[in-house]
């Protein structure tokens, strides 16, 4: 999947979230994309899509985004970015 497909998939899946989970989740891409200067865009977009799938599963089991991921989406984004491989070149796949 290319970056555009990942982003489009992410946008379509957000419709499955309830309003509280959607509000929480929509902060994550903002924080992660804004701070991912040295990460490959494809890695970032795949991660966001994977997290959204996880949140949809958690929601179907009655969990809120705050219960599943924690209360602070910005702190979560910072932790996640530390785990992604760094790239000093902007590479697209």
TrEMBL record:
PANTHER family xref list: MEMBRANE PROTEIN, MEMBRANE PROTEIN-RELATED
The protein's name: Uncharacterized protein
